C-alpha cells in the first residue's frame, strides 16, 4: 500500500506551537551536558497524542540523548519531563514501572539479544513486567507480535544472526510492541535499510500507528520517512528544538539548516518520491 505524503494535507498556515495542551510528552527547559559539552539548553517540546512526530537535526545535536532523557536512561542537569502527565524525573520506582510499561522503544540497530531467539526477545519485556505469565501465554503473545510486524511465523525460533537487516528491525519492533504500548519511540528505524525495505518499514509504522492508536516519537535522518508518515517534524539545532510543524510550515522558515535540509538535493528527491507515492495511492 502506497501512502500519501501526510505533510501535503491541508493544515494550519501557522507554525505549530512547540508547547501544546494535549501532550503525551511534555519537556520543559531541558539541559543535558557531558563534562564541558552542553548538548541541550532550554529545550522545550510537546508531543501530541496520536501523532507521529519526526525528530530531526544534524548529527550530534542530541536527538538520541533527548529520547534517552524522556525514557529515563539519561538524567538531565535541569528541566522537567512529563509523560502521560506524570513527572518522570520525580516519580517513585513503582510509578516509574507503571509509566514504562505504557511505552515501547526500538533502539538504533534493533538492540536484540543475540543469544535469544526472536520470540524470546519479544518475551523479555513481558517477563520483566508480568513475571506471573506462563510459558504458553508468553509463546502465544510473542507469536502474535511477530506476525503483527510482518514477519512470517517461522521467524520466531530464529536467532538475530539468522535475520536480514529489515527482519531484525521488525523483530525489534515486535519486542517494542510486546506490552501493547500507547507510545512508541523509534530511533532511526530505517537506517541501513535499502529504499524498498525502508518504505515498507514506514508503511508498517503508519499502519500500526493507525490501527493501535499509537503516538510515535521517530528519530530519523530519512527524508522519505518524514514526508511519508510524519504529522509534524521537530527540528533540533542550537541545543534546543528550534521549530515544530508540518514540513510545509517548516519550509516557510528561513533557518539555514532547515532550508538546506528540506530544500537540498535529497529533500527535493524526497518531495518527488512522496508525490509519486501519492499519485499511486490515488490510482493516477
Ligand atoms: N554517554 C555519553 N557520554 C558522553 N557524550 C555523549 C554520551 N551520549 C551522547 N554523547 C554526546 O552527545 C552528543 C549528542 O549525541 P546523540 O547521540 O544524542 O546525537 P544524535 O543527534 O542522535 O546524533 P546522530 O544523528 O549522529 O545519531 C554527541 O556529541 C555525543 O557524542
UniProtKB/TrEMBL annotation:
<keyword id="KW-0067">ATP-binding</keyword>
<dbReference type="InterPro" id="IPR027417">
    <property type="entry name" value="P-loop_NTPase"/>
</dbReference>
<keyword id="KW-0813">Transport</keyword>
<feature type="domain" description="ABC transporter">
    <location>
        <begin position="25"/>
        <end position="263"/>
    </location>
</feature>
<dbReference type="Pfam" id="PF00005">
    <property type="entry name" value="ABC_tran"/>
</dbReference>
<dbReference type="InterPro" id="IPR003593">
    <property type="entry name" value="AAA+_ATPase"/>
</dbReference>
<dbReference type="InterPro" id="IPR003439">
    <property type="entry name" value="ABC_transporter-like_ATP-bd"/>
</dbReference>
<dbReference type="GO" id="GO:0005524">
    <property type="term" value="F:ATP binding"/>
</dbReference>
<dbReference type="InterPro" id="IPR017871">
    <property type="entry name" value="ABC_transporter-like_CS"/>
</dbReference>
<protein>
    <submittedName>
        <fullName>ABC transporter ATP-binding protein</fullName>
    </submittedName>
</protein>
<dbReference type="GO" id="GO:0016887">
    <property type="term" value="F:ATP hydrolysis activity"/>
</dbReference>
<keyword id="KW-0547">Nucleotide-binding</keyword>
